[in-house]
Amino acid sequence: MNELQSTNRNRRILGIDPGVNITGYGVIDQTGQQLELVEAGVLRGGKGDLSERCLRLYQGLVEVLESLHPDEMAIEQLYSHYQRPRTAIIMAHARGVLCLAAQQREIPMSDYAATQIKKVLTGNGRASKGQMQLAVCREFQLAEAPEPPDVADALATALCHAFIGRS
Prior knowledge:
- By secondary structure, this protein is an alpha/beta fold.
- Helix content is 50%, strand content 22%.
- It has a five-stranded mixed β-sheet with strand order 3-2-1-4-5.
- Helix 3 links the parallel strand 4 (72-76) and strand 5.
- Helix 2 (50-68) runs parallel beside helix 3.
- The model is unreliable at 1-6 (pLDDT under 50).
């Protein structure tokens, strides 16, 4: 991106779909009503104990933050079925280190429930993964959905933040 482009953009938004094994991320630039996909990918916790996996996620996000310089971060809230409290606890560890990385760099954060993200993008708070992927593809004119689905979810989170910030 050249210097003129970077001074014209309103904000750069980093969307995060947190997970211990795979965390999706998507970075978009918003200039007025225009949205542009900058980069999207995954951070992998990999194998090992929980502390090692969280460290890898933290280090991966630090690299993204330092290379792409987002102005804001939007992250999906945790959701876990009441029958699986252990899942929520493990996910909270991952989400915590991701929030820490952003907070250390004084990047403002917003979080959104999955149902809110789905409603903003599709009009239906219970939209399927496929519907969400279609909405992301439509917004960025992508020929195919980003893979793995965590990437589309992260982009959807960034889009939700951009759309809510417009109103």
